Amino acid sequence: MSHTAHLETVVREIAEEMAQRTDRGEVASYIPELGNVDPGHFALVVTDAEGNVAAGGDADVPFSIQSISKVFTLTLALGMVGDRLWRHVGREPSGNAFNSIVQLERERGVPRNPFINAGAIAVTDVILSGHQPREAIGEILRFMRFLAGDPSIVIDEKVAASEKRTGFRNTALANYMKSFGVVENPVDFTLGVYFHHCAIAMTCRQLATAGRFLAYSGKNPSTGLSVVSAERARRINALMLTCGHYDGSGEFAYRVGLPGKSGVGGGIMAIAPGKASIAVWAPGLDKAGNSHLGRIALEALTKRMGWSIFGV
Amino acid sequence: MSHTAHLETVVREIAEEMAQRTDRGEVASYIPELGNVDPGHFALVVTDAEGNVAAGGDADVPFSIQSISKVFTLTLALGMVGDRLWRHVGREPSGNAFNSIVQLERERGVPRNPFINAGAIAVTDVILSGHQPREAIGEILRFMRFLAGDPSIVIDEKVAASEKRTGFRNTALANYMKSFGVVENPVDFTLGVYFHHCAIAMTCRQLATAGRFLAYSGKNPSTGLSVVSAERARRINALMLTCGHYDGSGEFAYRVGLPGKSGVGGGIMAIAPGKASIAVWAPGLDKAGNSHLGRIALEALTKRMGWSIFGV
Amino acid sequence: MSHTAHLETVVREIAEEMAQRTDRGEVASYIPELGNVDPGHFALVVTDAEGNVAAGGDADVPFSIQSISKVFTLTLALGMVGDRLWRHVGREPSGNAFNSIVQLERERGVPRNPFINAGAIAVTDVILSGHQPREAIGEILRFMRFLAGDPSIVIDEKVAASEKRTGFRNTALANYMKSFGVVENPVDFTLGVYFHHCAIAMTCRQLATAGRFLAYSGKNPSTGLSVVSAERARRINALMLTCGHYDGSGEFAYRVGLPGKSGVGGGIMAIAPGKASIAVWAPGLDKAGNSHLGRIALEALTKRMGWSIFGV
Amino acid sequence: MSHTAHLETVVREIAEEMAQRTDRGEVASYIPELGNVDPGHFALVVTDAEGNVAAGGDADVPFSIQSISKVFTLTLALGMVGDRLWRHVGREPSGNAFNSIVQLERERGVPRNPFINAGAIAVTDVILSGHQPREAIGEILRFMRFLAGDPSIVIDEKVAASEKRTGFRNTALANYMKSFGVVENPVDFTLGVYFHHCAIAMTCRQLATAGRFLAYSGKNPSTGLSVVSAERARRINALMLTCGHYDGSGEFAYRVGLPGKSGVGGGIMAIAPGKASIAVWAPGLDKAGNSHLGRIALEALTKRMGWSIFGV
Predict the structure, then answer these.
(1) Model confidence, pTM
(2) Which of A100, A175, A179 sits opposite C105 (nearest CB)?
(3) What is the ipTM of this complex?
(4) Which residues contact B201 (CB under 8 A, 6 or more apart)?
(5) A243-298 per-position pLDDT tens digit
(6) What is the DSSP letter of B171?
(7) Is A61 part of the annotated catalytic residue set?
(8) Hey, what domains does chain A have and what are their CATH numbers?
């Protein structure tokens, strides 16, 4: 059996196994647009270096990518200001829940990493830097469409509006950072952009395509277009590995062994450097706020394909 | 130039570059045995899959491996009790300094991971489990000699005695865990074993050999002897990546891109899965308590050899 | 010498001593309206049970009462909802700085006491409860005028506007409590009222009069008008004693021995139960954010008059 | 009815009311000597300025005074080193549980006040200062006998031995402070003295007598013997008010309105300055670790006698 055929078999098997599991976690319920999603959904899409795509489940159903967008805003912000970004945000795991404010008090408003909420808000603030929110939102959306090679990607405005209406904790984080000068734009502007990029809706097929530059030294191997330098791609992967799953990052590294970023919509994007870009979606979450079956599916995938970055 | 010759050149160049640097960090000073070490030392040893060894600098000068021993006690404890170990210690980065006690109060005495002090004490307590301290110390030492293939490795009793004499913070951590029942043996016994395994003295050559099982699916490829399963080797590597450098773990992953474990004696063991086992020694430390030049040397090595686990 | 003459002498002496001191602390500088106040000001006014007033220094110069207003909003809120208030705020010293957010995370958004910022915002939210901000502000101002017997008291709108423009930390606190449902009104409404009552400008003479009900079992002894029950007056005094000076409350109790409440404008209102209502003003603050000379003056006053509640 | 007759009636009534209550809290259970105490006990003894004693319930049954001893060791240490004591311990409420270690990390090993465990250990260390533990224990015991005017007071050695055997958390605190140099003697010595003074057994009658110097300007009014200056007596009372009931100090001030110190044996000593020294004992504790019925009895007593320091 060819490598591609083997991969397709593995992906199909995993999709079937996940469809049958009854332990599906709990769907995020803080806004109705997430709370009403059917926990029965499952999708897994893997794109390899040659551009072959193995897809299982609801691969073409769009979902709210939520915090997965933070990988792309980080990429965009690094492209805009380079290492100056690290004046606004750190590179260490947080040891706390995704929306903790305790660490901000101890470290004078500088969030620990770009993937907790506070850190992603600080990154968004850098992208905004003096522009109108609408322009920044447009810039981020164009970047997502470019990476996914799909101009049909949109922002779910209902999700964005709900996030804004209920986002008191994020508003607290942003104001807190503002009090230390870490957030520089008007808080409402920065949060407006943040809530919108978290509300981008994508399918697993789109997401797996969008992540390919991280798997192949910063370039999309099919188009040859360079997104970032090889070093920057490695570093973004390192950040995903250490910080991509909030206070479940150690567990994800231990079990899955790939850099990845989860979102509260139940999606996870994972990267097998040199081998594959992967997207999985299963709406139910575990206690740390990461997709329950998504993690289990990725664990099965890396084991069967021998893709762990920590050894065969 | 052959791969081996290339590696030897790179190792020699890095050793020369490091010898010339004047930014050498600060030698640990809490005990005289560490405080009196010459910050001018530097050693780098790389062992590849074929057993070729490239060595630069003071490759045969023994130093106090300190917290690097925690990788080996973790391996030993997993071999003794398997996944039951995780009742005593977690698998998440701590987000705090190596000797913080704050997290223990919040999480009822269970340390976040096996590589912070509290976690390593909990692991040592599992190894001890009812035996005499002398027996447990002997067991750990035999394991180190077996892994390094060198029966001459010894414990520096002066270091162990100094650690014990000044180890009030570790005594606090152990008693604190004892108050929650996480430490089960008499605190003095557990700490006695802990202080002794931290006082093992090894050379970079010995250390690079000892780490080979982690690079090659749990086996020493030269002897063929299996130490752990391939899955366990991957998982130990994952823990080193996320937690191996205290509150500098994110930074090490970001810059070096290899699983590694540092010690306050200035040593770092790093693993390039499938490619190499590496030991570096430079006594001066950075603010997070990790070898300053050791990290810089490893960053140069992975960049020049293309060994980052996060992509080429 | 009569008691009244003695008191007048003591007040005059203290005012003279304070005028000569060169250690005056640092004026709060986060808004220009406070930062521009002359640190040379000093005022001390004592009103006894008979209504005699002993005044020294700038007794008729108005200043921003800031957090002293929290005693009066607490009184007002208790009058409106009684002990139901304690669902929104606790009664324990905080052990943290006045604007800490750490405790809120640990205790699910319920502030420790009504005198730290978060607690006072929660109290203000109770007063607002469904009304328009303008109505609530009017209610608070009318209450202050009634207590001080002086309809000329006003809010310094410039101070209120500056507080609002720079109040990111308070906005963070309010949104954080809102995320737990502890703040019930729109955050902007609650903060609008909060910033306004902190911006009330009063003289020491007015303030000493306004506090009289706390010294005399809940009644103004001159007018005979009852403000609160005797038990409630005692309890408000108890809260001032344990929590009235942020993380300097223990120190104030230890040195002065009276219930009191400080404000960042440099004012302190203190109560000698059964004996006197006291107001002092010296704009320079100590490290805990309390009036430096104000505390020293009160220490001298209680010592010379034998007024400590902890014994003669 | 004379004042004395009124007091006797009130004390008898309260003792009767408490005997009938079924809500008695939970007896401390961490050592058998406390866990086996009958929660049905109740005692209340009040000594007034003239030396009249009003006693109700089990006034002559000895109990373990535990943390109440911290008031007396504080008094002794202040007598030995004066204000230099405050280099070792602070004067602020802690905002944390009685045995919290979190604050020690933040404030470099200096405990917040002399009445939390860490603070009392630091005070004990000052008393010990170079002497043998046996001498320091003897000194403290002699001081208690002198204050109570009763040479029969002893230490319950079984309690002391149990405390030592199970005192891992206190051992953690002491070692932690030792690591910062705040504890100067060998940890075992300091803890030995600490465990012994907490194990002093006294009756309410003895305790009420021992506290009299705090009610009357530092002197025992019956013997005329001076223990401390009037100022020091006031300051110790202030510390009891703000810190005497752990994280229930604010609540005790709010409800009872007297300086007081509780112990986990169910005792509370309270001081009505100028009016009375009070001891109460009811073994069941509330959630903050203070005597449940003891606090309720004192609230009734101060209300009926009009003794609150916060007003009549």
Answers:
(1) 0.94
(2) A100
(3) 0.96
(4) B62, B63, B64, B65, B153, B154, B155, B156, B159
(5) 999 889 999 999 999 999 999 999 999 999 999 999 999 999 999 999 999 999 99
(6) H
(7) no
(8) 3-62+202-305 (3.40.710.10), 67-200 (3.40.710.10)
